[in-house]
Design a protein that fits this description.
With 84 residues, the chain is mostly helical. It contains 3 helices and no strands.
Length: 84
């Protein structure tokens, strides 16, 4: 397989090999692909969790109206009741 890289990416690969962290350009590319695969799996897991959370929210019942001012008032009242 042949891959064409931009000059900037070519230089990045060369610098990784020159640093001694990798023994070849192929090793750099393999590691980059492994990392990309890992990111894709993480992204998919987060998306599935988000979908799950949305389903839970939709199945939790009808929404209820609320007042920001009332929520602040209740929070301040609870805070005032806590011992210092």
């Amino acid at each position: 397989m042949n891959v064409n890289l931009t000059p900037q990416l070519e230089e990045l690969v060369r610098s990784k090999v020159a640093s001694g962290m990798y023994s070849s350009a192929s090793e750099v590319v393999r590691e980059a692909l492994r990392l990309m695969d890992e990111q894709d799996r993480l992204r998919a897991a987060k998306l599935e969790q988000l979908r799950h959370d949305i389903r839970q929210g939709l199945n939790s019942g009808p929404g209820q109206a609320w007042s920001a001012e009332e929520a602040k008032r209740e929070g301040r009242a609870r805070r005032a009741q806590k011992p210092a």
